[in-house]
C-alpha cells in the first residue's frame, strides 16, 4: 500500500474522494426529492397549514 501513496498525491486523493462523496450526497438528495414518497419538502408544505386549519382548537388555546 505504501507504493500507491508514493505514486499518488495523498492530498489530491483525499480532495477527490471528498468531492466525489459531496456530489454523491447531492445526487441522492435530489433523487429523493424527485420521488413522490420521499419528498420531505412537498410534504411539509402541503400538510402544514391544512392540518392546522382543520384541527379544532381546544378551550385552553381559544382566544378571548
Short description:
The chain is mainly alpha-helical.
Describe this protein with a few key phrases.
64 residues; mainly alpha; 0% strand; elongated
Walkthrough of the structure:
With 64 residues, the chain is mostly helical. It has a domain at 1-35. It is 72% helix and 0% strand. The protein has helices at 2-7, 10-34, 40-54. The longest helix has 25 residues, at 10-34. It is elongated.
Strand-residue proportion: under 5%
- Low-pLDDT parts are none
The overall pLDDT average reads 82
Characterize the biggest β-sheet: none
- Terminal-residue CA separation: 75 Å
From the alpha-carbon coordinates, what is the Rg to the nearest angstrom? 24 Å
Structural class: mainly alpha
Helix content: over 70%
Instruction: Compute the number of strand runs.
Output: 0
The number of helical elements comes to 3
Shape estimate: elongated
Question: SSE order, as H and E?
Answer: HHH
Strand and helix layout:
Blueprint: H1 2-7, H2 10-34, H3 40-54
